[in-house]
Write a structure and sequence with these properties.
mainly alpha
Length: 281
């Protein structure tokens, strides 16, 4: 609790971090209170109200099916963050132990694991994600699983790099001399000192996952209609942009921008907070 309060005091003195926190809180409010914040059903089509511009009835206008854009954006926050946070959380939980093991033990299995990660990361991320979703099916959880697979090597490599540096430090040698087991050394002495880069990467990866989710849906390889999702909404509206119907794509596009920006600012704030050179108040 003390750490949390200290972090909020830090963000209150950092304008960029404060903006990130405010945008993040707004997203949390949209997730929790979506049924009360939305003015219409996010999935009910109304052909009579098709492509109406922003008005008192429809604050951000309607799309080609007559669905309210404002309501769909509010509910899409749940979908996009559910996919992104779940994917990054799974990647963190799996990638961190793998990185710890392959960094601590230098054997053929560690080398093989890193070559598998090299193979995964040799593909363009978007192309590989599109291929995997096409094979597994266009469902919300399938998209989350695919993104998790793409992010596991990122966390594993971050932890491995830290472990390779820490395993030769004098305090690790002292722990070995005192009779500590490999498990004790890894999880009690090395892991707590190696986690900071990965914690910072969590926020950045969530922003990347949001962009990948939106991109996959934009090209038709992500979630399908009528599920409210920002990239899918931009894709639907892009077909009318040439006709001057700008609101269908603009507002969900701005939602993507502000969401990714919030996690980028939070990631930068977390990095500065954990920086040992930072002056403590």
């Amino acid at each position: 609790m003390t750490k949390i309060l200290d972090f909020f005091r830090f963000t209150s003195r950092n304008p960029a971090a404060l903006i990130g926190v405010v945008l993040f809180v707004l997203q949390l409010l949209a997730i929790v209170f979506a049924p009360w914040l939305a003015t219409h059903s996010p999935t009910t089509a109304d052909p009579i109200a098709s492509l109406q511009p922003p008005s008192v009835e429809h604050w951000l206008g309607t799309d080609v099916s007559g669905m309210d854009i404002y309501s769909r954006i509010i509910f899409a926050t749940r979908i996009n963050l559910l996919i992104s946070v779940t994917a990054v959380a799974v990647a963190f939980v799996i990638g961190v132990p793998i990185g710890l093991l392959v960094g601590y033990y230098r054997n053929w299995l560690s080398s093989l694991t890193m070559r598998v990660f090299d193979f995964i990361q040799s593909f363009p991320v978007f192309v590989l994600g599109m291929a995997l979703v096409s094979v597994m099916g266009q469902e919300i959880w399938n998209v989350a699983i695919v993104l998790a697979v793409l992010f596991i090597p990122v966390f594993a490599r971050l932890i491995r790099a830290e472990v390779l540096s820490l395993r030769e430090r004098p305090f690790i040698a002292a722990a070995r001399c005192s009779g500590a087991t490999d498990a004790t050394i890894m999880f009690r002495h090395i892991l707590p000192n190696a986690l900071t880069p990965s914690i910072v990467q969590v926020s950045i990866s969530i922003g990347m996952a949001i962009l990948l989710t939106a991109g996959l849906s934009f090209i038709g390889a992500g979630v399908r209609m009528p599920v409210p999702e920002w990239g899918l909404m931009v894709s639907v509206g892009s077909q009318q942009m040439i006709l001057g119907i700008w609101w269908v794509s603009l507002f969900p596009g701005l939602a993507i921008v502000f969401s990714v920006l919030s996690f980028a600012l939070l990631g930068d704030a977390i990095r500065e907070y954990f920086d040992p050179r930072r002056e403590r108040a």
